[in-house]
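Incident log, structure service

09:12 report received: a user says their structure output differs between two submissions of the same chain.
09:20 pulled the input from the user's history:
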Amino acid sequence: MAILLAYLLPLALLLLTSFSFFLLFHKHKVANTKLPPGKAGWPLVGETPTLVTLGKKGKPEKFIKDRIEKYCPTVFKTSLFGENMAVFCGATGNKFLFSNENKIVTSWWPESTKKVALFPSTENQSPSAADEAKKQRGFLHEFLKAEALQKYVPIMDSMARNHFEKYWDHHKEVKVFQLSKKYTFTLACKLFLNCEDPDHIARFARPFSLLTPGLMSVPIDFPGTAFSLAKKGGKAIRKELVAIIKKRKVELSEKREPMKRDLLSCMLQSVDEDGKFMNEMEIANKIVGLFIASYDSTSTAITFVINFLAEYPYVYDKVFKEQMQIAKSKRPKELLNWEDIQKMKYSWCVACEALRLTPPGQGGFREVVTDFTYAGFSIPKGWKTYWTVHSTHKDPKYFPNPEKFDPSRFEGTGPAPFTFVPFGGGPRMCPGKEFARLEILVFIHNMVKGFKLEKAIPTEKIIYNPSPIPVHGLPVLLYPHEN
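09:34 re-ran on a clean worker, output below:
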């Protein structure tokens, strides 16, 4: 025993001394590191309450603008969702983060998002972002390739016609926000899961209304909180998806399912570089993400396009003229095709200007995987970064008279690179950008073909949670065209 103690005591002293030197060195290193200027806010929650409060007031850009003016126009530090965070600003900041994806930064989401949207057994798994991107490219390439997108146009048009006939025709007033969600969700069910049963779709949509408001919430799991309700919604969604996936696997194995018919079939038949298939939980997690994008992001974009068309008659008239030229070139009941979409140039300028002023997504998070320096400041490994639309979309340097609704900004060459970023950028740019463009333009075509609009509440308040939401659902008065 004495011999053992004689051996262990020097070893323990050596380890203690080494650890002390490490702490001293680390403290000296941190003290001599020039971090971006800013403040951390409150313990644990940081400045998250301020960000949320400004969103509820309809002024999310104020959080960014105030700190740019107070601290630094290129990068500042804050604490959001319990994490040290460097917020990169301006076109240069956007370019830097987008260009360094999977090099010095990698994809990251707040804990609330992971706990709400993912299976509990997978939320802490950390496959490399590069591996995840490879998997995603595999199944999404098949679903979003040009030939596939061209086939979706008539399907979208047919479903839009049914939607307007059922929910808009013979009504004097409608709430656009709710109806745009119904349209995009029904379309997603058809193209993602080949589900067309209205009762099944309505039952599947209910938990999504609980999930999306809690995606960026403070993860406090008390009954009635946004986070608690979102967890409940996420659990119901995953349960439903697994049942659908299991049923589809049986259909595919028994050759009762046409090959590559929808996104789910693409995912079930997609293999990685090692020849491995995705498991049911992986597929469900990815489909949840795609549904969130469709249910929340695209429907929000459509809502605010309609908002601006109702608010600015001269813009509506130009869109109407463009769309009626397309409509008059079609035979009775002939559906839209890919070539028709390419003619909707001004309509897409209008959509882009709506995305600039009221972007559905407010920005994106990344995790720092290695220490680096930016604009003279050190960004430590383990910190999180954030790029945001609010550092460019309303900056007069990039968009003169930024509060004015002016679709002509997007004519010709359009805005300067990295200034208009509603879909992100770099390797992680939204892969469904073109899919969303089709959904938006098809909806615009069918709406203006049938109605002229007027806002029922001209000064309706817009809040952000985290996407923009018209507090009354954007009620509009409908004036059907005589012919």
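09:41 both user submissions now match this output. Likely a transient worker issue. Closing.
09:42 reviewer note: The longest helix spans residues 280-311. The two ends are 101 Å apart (CA to CA).
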